[in-house]
Each structure stands twice: as C-alpha cells, then as structure tokens.
Design goal:
alpha/beta; Rossmann fold; 3 domains; six-stranded mixed sheet; four-stranded parallel sheet; about 15% strand; globular; binds iron/sulfur cluster
C-alpha cells in the first residue's frame, strides 16, 4: 500500500514538477515557497526552504516576496500572514489542511481559564501558547501579555516568564508542556493539568506525605490537548526497537507522552531531531519518534545510516498539500498578475484587529529567543 512519503515519479508528476519550476522561474522574486519538515518529499523538493514552525515564521517574516505560497497546515500559514508586511499575500495550496491539536482550544475557552487562574493565584497568569494554535488564540496571548512558543524554544520562553515571577498557562499541547517542565525540573506539586471542563488536576499524586496540592500555589497550568500523530508512540515500541538492536539511538519529539520521552535516549523539536541525526556517524542506527514522512525523507538524505520511524505515524493534514494544488496556487498567481480579477488559490487572511495582537505575541517570541530588548516588555 502506498504511504504518504512515497514519491510518485511517473510522467504526470514530472510534467507537474517541470511546470512548477517554470512558473517559479517566471515569477522570480515575486514569490517564495516555504515548506514544513512534515511535507511530502516531492513538495519539499520544489520548495525554497524547509524548516520547523519557528524557522518558517522567522524566515517567512524576513522574506520580501509579494506572494508567500506556504506548504504546511493552516495555523502555520496564518502565522506567516500575521507577520507578513503590508502588500504581502500568503497563499495555502489546500485551505482544508488543518490541525486537530489547534482545534482543541479557542480564545473564549482560554480567556475563561485565564480569568479563573488569575483569581486563583492572585496574579496575572501569562499565557504561553504553542505555535500550533489559531490566530484567535495567538491574539488573546498577545493581549494578556504572553508569547507564542515552538517545541524548539518552549523551555526558554517558559523560563522567561517563571523568572519574571509569573505563573504560566500553557496550551494547547499537554505533552510539550509537561516534558519541558520536566527538563526545567519544575516541582510537580506546582504543575496542574487543566481539563476541558476547567477542572485542575495536580501532577503530583496525593499520598500520605503529600498534602492535597493547592492550585493557588501553581506555577504551571497545562491545557489537555494532544497531537494524534505523536500520541501513538508507546514505551513498548522503544523496548522492541532496542531488543532488535541494542545499539540503536531513540530520539522522539516532545509532543510524545512523558513516559515515551523519558524512555527515549533524547528528545527534540523536528529541527533538533534533524540536526542530531545529521550529526550522527555513518553506520549509526536511529529510531525516530515523529511524523513518518519526515523520518523517511531523513533516511533518504542520509543513506549511510539506518533511520527508521518508531511507528509509521502520519499527519494527513500535512499530506493535503500536493504537487497538484501547489501548481494550482502558482498558476493562480500568474493569472492574477495578468488580470487582477482572477482569484488567488487560496488566500490566508487574518482579521486586522486579531492580526495586531497576534503579531505582538509572535514578535515577543522572536524577541525573547533572539535576546532582543522587546522581549522584556510584557
Ligand atoms: S503533526 Fe500533529 S500538531 Fe502537527 S499539524 Fe499534524 S496534527 Fe497538528
């Protein structure tokens, strides 16, 4: 059975790739085409650069092209639209490419939780929102003094707010929140899972020696969302990989369950995994717990080492971007330039009021990560 990582090298695909390359040449500096690491290899191959969501948002913001054809899911393209300069237009080849995790929280839910946590702790709790969220969540984060983070910088951002003496509400991914908290050694008695009904559940189990934890003393409140692609990884898969090859190095993404991250040899963002495996020695063996299209691409790039997915787990939203719809986007740009009445496929637009607040939260992330002065203002 074909899997999403298989490159179709038939004549039709070659013709589509040729037309994409011709259109890109013709449109020149007017377009840029970033692609997320989880895109199909043939889409990555025709893109201008590939990266994780932090790299894409930063480099996308720096691009001066008039059209950004974003090969990724909608929240990523939205982030590019939020950071876009006046006159820049962001297109997504398939507007249906969503993210179930981003759908797990919205601004109204988060606002209600933040109000409750502010009252409980007696402080303004800072929202720290994962990039994998929609514009309304990003805007709320900006308005309430918080920042966006990605898996590559969540620890730095969380430290930033805790060092400033602020409790943090992290969402939507529970696993990233708890795994980062573990890396930072945050006391589990002060970490609470926030259930969808608003109930708070302490991460330290109550025993004779541990009194019922008090949420008013909470440092970190983590929303109960998850990524179904990373949720499928289990500790017994790691054990099975090690029994097949005791020398194997297991590296997983921090959207995986806490027990899986702890059982692995290391964990890292997609970009971090890429760099770690790329720095490995020829002949080394890797089992990688993240989206399988990415793992297979990595294996094709480094044929001198063994690189296999922990499990064949795919993001079918990412796979919605295809050579066909990329070509349709590029054709629409050409047609639109010739006749502005012709529609562009497909514009990603963000309400201007939402955009300003969301940009604040995204730029705070970049400022804090890059050590720019603006990061201190929140
Ligand atoms: S891999 Fe998970 S978090 Fe990323 S877009 Fe797919 S569903 Fe969303």
């Amino acid at each position: 059975m074909a899997s999403p990582h298989d490159i179709q090298t038939n004549d039709t695909n070659s013709a589509i790739i040729n037309e994409i390359q011709e259109l890109k040449k013709e449109l020149g500096q007017q377009i840029i085409m970033p692609a997320h690491h989880y895109q199909k290899p043939e889409v990555v191959a025709v893109s201008d650069f590939v990266g994780d969501s932090y790299k894409l948002s930063k480099e996308g913001a720096a691009a001066s092209a008039r059209f950004i054809v974003f090969c990724g899911v909608r929240f990523m393209a939205e982030s590019a639209a939020i950071l876009a300069a006046p006159g820049q237009t962001v297109l997504i080849p398939d507007p249906v490419a969503g993210c179930p995790m981003a759908d797990m929280i919205d601004a109204a839910q988060a606002e209600a939780i933040l109000d409750k946590l502010d009252a409980l702790t007696g402080q303004a709790v800072a929202p720290l929102t994962y990039m994998n969220s929609y514009a309304d969540m990003k805007a709320l984060t900006g308005r309430r003094g918080g920042a966006i983070c990605t898996s590559s910088n969540a620890a730095k951002l969380l430290n930033h707010y805790l060092d400033a003496g602020k409790p943090v509400f992290f969402g939507p991914d529970f696993n990233l929140g708890i795994n980062v908290a573990n890396d930072l050694g945050i006391d589990r008695k002060r970490i609470f899972r926030v259930r969808k009904d608003g109930a708070l559940e302490c991460m330290e189990s109550v025993t004779d020696s541990v009194k019922t934890p008090n949420p008013s003393q909470g440092l970190l409140f983590i929303w109960d969302g998850f990524c179904h692609v990373h949720k499928t990884f289990k500790v017994d898969q790691i054990q099975a990989a090690r029994s097949r090859n005791p020398e194997v190095q297991v590296i997983v993404h921090p959207e995986s369950d806490e027990a899986v991250v702890q059982a692995a040899d290391s964990s890292g963002s997609t970009e971090g995994i890429y760099k770690t495996v790329a720095a490995g020695t020829p002949g080394s063996s890797w089992v990688v717990g993240t989206e399988a299209s990415f793992v297979h691409r990595l294996a094709a790039e480094y044929p001198d080492r063994s690189i296999v997915p922990l499990r064949e787990s795919y993001c079918f939203n990412m796979a919605r971007i295809t050579l066909d719809n990329v070509l349709a986007s590029l054709r629409s740009i050409k047609a639109h330039l010739a006749d502005p009445l012709r529609p562009l496929y497909h514009i990603v637009s963000v309400d201007p009021a939402v955009k300003a607040d969301a940009a604040l939260a995204l730029n705070r992330m970049i400022d804090i990560v890059e050590g720019r002065a603006g990061g201190a203002k929140h």
